[in-house]
Amino acid sequence: MTLLTTAPIRRLSPADLPRCLDLSADRGWSRENRKWQLLLTAGTGYGIDDPDGDGLIGCFVLTRYGRELACVSMVLVAERHARRGLGRRLVTHALEEAAGTPVFIYATESGRSLYEQLGFRPVSRSTTRTGRFRPEAPVPASAAEATRRATAADLPAILELDAEVFGSDRMHLLTRLPAFVEQVRVTEGPGGRLTGFATAWRNVHHTVIGPVVAEDTGTAQRLIADLAVRTEGEVRMDVDTRHAALESWLDTRGVTPVTANTLMVHGASSLPGDHRRRFAPLMVALG
Question: Does the pTM of the predicted model rise above 0.90?
């Protein structure tokens, strides 16, 4: 027990990537190399070194979005140290590092009770969906805009729309996306006004579609469909359950739920921004 209460929690660097992958594998998670690379550069990783080896016995990532919001994710404890208070210590350290900034987390069922004990409040749910997208659906009548491939010239408008919808500044994250994702598509309204954007990026077993930001459900559907038809194999999405119409549409397209998470917030009653236009996160580890 002394080890768990006194071992230092240090900042991680990109050089710790193999240790993070090993700890993920220890808990039965995939070795998501590209995802961890982004997390360790867009956010700040923290970990506890294994005194008996060169690996980690625990870690988490804290990603800050300006002074308004932060995300804690990838809370992992080595199996041999599970259920001994190390997870509580890691999350408590994350809240201390956030220094009063509201923090959100997508909690698994196994982790939710711990987060509730530490003061997190549930605000919504999300479903993780996978499947081979069936593209034969007709275009919804509400999705009048055609999507197009984004260009570098679209970045200022994407950043402006995302800040409005997300409610915090994610410029340091979104400017990394052109080098991280395989596809970025946008929709436009009258006068060339940007009405939505979405990306697709390759993970270990799936192509993940997200974030999806759109002015309405039909626009979100069109963005998702146009990304999915340009993707080989199965897609994955994490969809806010408040978007019931989108969930029903994905069911008909073969992208069905496999698990769920609870979106929880600490230090605020809800998340900033407009959840009505926030259909899917980039990943649950970043929002």
Answer: yes
